[in-house]
Amino acid sequence: MINVSELPLWVEVLVAILLLLSSLFALLGAIGLLRMKDFFQRMHPPALASTLGAWCVALASIIYFSTLKSGPVLHGWLIPILLSITVPVTTLLLARTSLFRKRMAGEDVPAEVSSRRTESGS
Amino acid sequence: MKRLFPAPWLSLALWALWLVLNLSISPGNLLLGAILGFLAPLMMAPLRPLPVRIRRPGVIIRLFFLVGRDVILSNLHVAWGILTCGTRPPRSRFVKIPLDLRDANGLAVLSMITSVTPGTVWSELALDRSILLLHVFDLDDDAQFIEHFKQAYERPLMEIFE
User: Fold this and answer.
1) Contact, B54 vs B76, CB < 8 A?
2) What pLDDT sits at residue A2?
3) What is the value of ipTM here, to two decimals?
4) What is the tens place of the pLDDT at every residue in B63-84?
5) SS3 at position A29
6) Nearest-by-Cβ selection for B90 from A41, A75, A96
């Protein structure tokens, strides 16, 4: 356990750079959300925040608290791991719903990839 | 033993998760984590469609780092695409990928990989699991992308799960 004021300079610089990088990626994700043209394009930019954005914060927290406590403090890594397990649930749901609705509305999206059994059977 | 611990790896992972979350290996936390690891798989056992059989730990570690690298590259690619979309709109489109992987758990991991990678969105899987429809943010060459996708992700997953 060391005092905050005794943190080595390189740790402070490294943590600051990681936090800035992370906020940069979150900002880019938000800008992308605004600038993209259609729904499916818009599904891509927010992933910047949930991947590199979250990873950099987790790494910064691990480095900062591990130096502060003079021992490994690793539970920050659970955030990226749990995020990568849960993000697909919402992504898949949104993509599937949008595809279904666009097909019903007759918009320009690929046709269903499954061949219907009833049609091919008869 | 099999009935008490239907998913031994899940039990171990939950136990480790509990200890890491609490940052302690005191006897009380060891016991609480063990109870969680024992009870959670038992309660979830009726939900589990298929037992997981995992092999080739070396391939898992290699796939983990490969996905990490590809996610970082895809992040930079999408970030660049967002910054330059005024002058050069990203070539977004759907790609149909023929799949050889049939294992449900393997496909679940594949869907995790594609959703975590910013450049790709898992859009639809054929009922017989033979075709995957993927939306790609910026794509140059379809054939090359499909080749990389199958070599880098599908092949190792088939080695691990099948």
Assistant:
1) no
2) 76
3) 0.82
4) 999 999 999 999 999 999 999 9
5) helix
6) A41
CA B135 to chain centre: 17
Q: Do A95 and B122 touch (CB under 8 A)?
A: yes
Per CB-CB distance under 8 Å, the chain B contacts of A79 are none
Whether residue A43 contacts residue A99, with contact meaning beta carbons closer than 8 Å, is answered with no
Enter the tokens of residue B93.
């489109």
Instruction: Mention every residue, 6+ apart, whose C-beta is less than 8 A from residue B53.
Output: B161
Q: Which of A47, A74, A96 has the CB atom closest to B124's CB atom?
A: A96
Separation of alpha carbons A94 and B57, rounded Å:
33
Q: Using a cut of 0.90, tell me whether the model's pTM lies above it.
A: no
- Count of domains in chain A? 1
Q: Would you give the distance in Å from CA B153 to the centre of its chain? A: 10
The tokens describing A107, both together, are 């918009």
- What is the spatial distance between Cα A106 and Cα B49, in angstroms, rounded to a whole number? 35
Name the residue range of residue A91's domain. 8-104
